[in-house]
């Protein structure tokens, strides 16, 4: 996968993109990142990329020309026959989710636009981008932190990046529910013991325990997620039992 990030502050990405899983993913050739300062595409000698809003009002608005041209230049370097997915980081956008990350991970080329100031010229939304994404119902100084979140969530889903294909399949939200508890050695720590079933070697029992604990954790913490999950009769019985005990 090729990822282009258009930003006014490309230096913000240097640590994130060259650490941990993102660094290893690049070393494996699974993904490549290019961060571009879209001031470089401004058509004026002062590299100005914003202007006052028509109709008046506070703040400055990002002009269409530099962003259109920067995105076009990034798209022209694509080696894929598919058009790139162009993502606009925006508080008004679709709430980012694991499902969205899985969708984007199937693409060959992503272009992520990070804005600043009061907002974007509406023509960017209407005629350039394919997706508008928000990482939450709050406003940040710019789109850079949101772009980092998306890049991290998407990259770890690319085949062979994590090494173990099951690593992300059991993540919270990938199954529709929150992930089950995890334990490691020692089997007893300060009087606190690992559940015996996890030490039994019986994989069927372990799988059932994990599914039950995942369901229970979702029931307790994010019950609204259960509205979209098809449950077995046994799982419905567990839910009924927990409801009665509350």
TrEMBL record:
Localization per record: Cytoplasm
Residues bound to S-adenosyl-L-methionine: 115, 135-140
Keyword tRNA processing among UniProt keywords: yes
Entry's EC annotation: 2.1.1.228
Record InterPro entries: Alpha/beta_knot_MTases, tRNA_m1G_MeTrfase_C_sf, tRNA_m1G_MeTrfase_TrmD, tRNA_m1G_MTases_N, tRNA_MeTrfase_TRMD/TRM10
Catalytic activity, reaction form: guanosine(37) in tRNA + S-adenosyl-L-methionine = N(1)-methylguanosine(37) in tRNA + S-adenosyl-L-homocysteine + H(+)
Primary location: cytoplasm
Keywords: Cytoplasm, Methyltransferase, S-adenosyl-L-methionine, Transferase, tRNA processing
Sequence ranges assigned to domain tRNA methyltransferase TRMD/TRM10-type in this UniProt record: 1-227
Lineage: superkingdom: Bacteria
Pfam families linked: tRNA_m1G_MT
A molecular function (GO) term: tRNA (guanine(37)-N1)-methyltransferase activity
One annotated GO biological process: methylation
SUPFAM superfamilies listed in its UniProt record: alpha/beta knot (SSF75217)
UniProt keyword Cytoplasm, yes or no: yes
Function: Specifically methylates guanosine-37 in various tRNAs.
Quaternary structure, from the entry: Homodimer.
Similarity-based family: Belongs to the RNA methyltransferase TrmD family.
Protein name as annotated: tRNA (guanine-N(1)-)-methyltransferase
